[in-house]
Amino acid sequence: MFQRIFGCQPQLVASAPGRVNLLGEHTDYNQGLVFPTPLPHQTTLEAAPGEGIEVYAESFKELKRRKPDEPRQGDWLDYIAGCVWALRRHGYGVPGLRACVRSEVPMGGGLSSSAALEVATLRALRALYQLPLDDVAIARLAQEAEVEYVGVRCGIMDQMAASVGRPGYGLLLDTRDLSTRLVPLPQGYRVVVVDSGVPRRLAESGYNARRQECEEACARLGVSSLRELTPADLPRLSSLPEPLLRRARHVITENARVLEGVEALEAGDVQRFGALMTASHASLRDDYQVSTPELDRLVEAELRHGAVGARLTGAGFGGATVALVAEEDYEPFRQGVQRDYPAARFL
Ligand code: GLA
Fold first, then answer.
1. Are residues 157 and 229 both part of a single domain?
2. Fewest CB within 10 A of the end CB: N or C in the chain?
3. Residue to probe by mutation, ligand 1, list 22, 28, 208, 295, most atoms within 8 Å of CB
4. Residue 157 beta carbon below 6 angstroms from any ligand 1 atom
5. DSSP 173-195
6. Residue 78 annotated to the active site
7. Quick one: 28 and 177 in the same domain?
8. Whole-prediction pTM
């Protein structure tokens, strides 16, 4: 592809995966705990050094150009230009790149196609210009590109999952200090990602409103982040007006579910982990109020057809669900869910 567009060979190929979050939703911007795992689906760049940014995106069949210091334009190139911008902002004299992008990560499904693109871009730039960046630094720069350049106020879970995660492992990430632990996922079970067919637009959704509500809850409670509170502090929330009480309760109980879930997996208690996933969905639906009727119906169908646990994954407001299913139950599970929810798309 690169050869056809630019008339020469690329210097290298870099890629990064999408992610699915198993537990710990809407906690990463509250200094909390998350537990995502990378998907097998990758975003791949064939790349070479360049003066300025010149990228062909296979998904859009489109070649775009931008100067390194030009502002964002509200298009797909923002994610790549934002990476160059973030590096230059930190004093790395990166002049640009030429690249062809191909992505297997579905867009708009809550599976972090944007983080996959940012991390793949930064990996390409790191290799092209021999930048002294470790994988955590890559994740931080990717998040900076998305927040400061693209203009989406996301947390750092997606970029960390894409940069530091390993296939077959859950990544326990403490967003307070970015410490991580890889936890093997249980043998004999499948992590099943199902798209609800209802598209989701993160920037336009209630995501920023939820962040603001969390900030307001903190101000009223006199804490710097909701991470300072544990389930023992739940009685303190009675001083909060709705919906702040519910929002805070979700974040506090969700952090506890992540810790308990990791303990359960390490003890080989898959049923317990599944129950925590399902409890997370209920909390996202009732307290955080980021589910939709379709996501609820899909999760119910998944549980009815044999999932050990199921929940919406990512920001919510549409997008995908994640379910844990025993290998031997998978076929009847898939058929049953497809029958009850015909729009379901299995990844
Ligand atoms: C989006 C954001 C993440 C995280 C999730 C919700 O995926 O990009 O940082 O906040 O929503 O858990």
1. no
2. N
3. 28
4. yes
5. EETTTTEEEEEEPPTTEEEEEEE
6. no
7. yes
8. 0.96
∠ CA 331-37-122 to the nearest 5 degrees?
A: 130
Nearest to 169 by CA among 257, 262, 260, 256: 262
Largest Cα–Cα distance of the chain, in whole Å?
66
The answer to whether the CB of 29 is under 6 A from ligand 1 is: yes
Query: Is the same domain home to 339 and 269?
Result: yes
The verdict on 100 and 239 lying in the same domain is no
The SS3 call for residue 46 is strand
Ligand 1 near 28 CB (within 6 A): yes
CATH no. for residue 173? Answer: 3.30.230.10
Instruction: Quote the CA–CA distance of 120 and 279 in Å, as a whole number.
Output: 34
**Closest ligand 1 atom to the C-alpha of 315?**
11
Distance CA 17, CA 10 (A): 21
Question: Could you identify the atom of ligand 1 that is nearest to the CA of residue 115?
Answer: 8
Peptide linkage before 293 cis (omega within 30 of 0): no
Write the pLDDT tens digit of every residue in 187-242.
Answer: 999 999 999 998 776 545 789 999 999 999 999 999 999 999 999 999 999 999 99
User: Measured between alpha carbons, how far is residue 141 from residues 84, 191, 242, 311 in Å?
Assistant: 10, 29, 36, 29
Distance CA 166, CA 205 (A): 30
Which protein residue has the closest C-alpha to ligand 1 atom 11? 315
How far apart, in whole angstroms, are the C-alpha atoms of residue 167 and residue 40? 7
Structural domain boundaries enclosing 276: 186-346
| 3-state secondary structure at position 62 | strand
- Can you tell me the mean pLDDT for 52-68? 97
Contact 80, 55 (CB under 8 A): yes
Catalytic entry in 158, 177, 287, 340 = 158
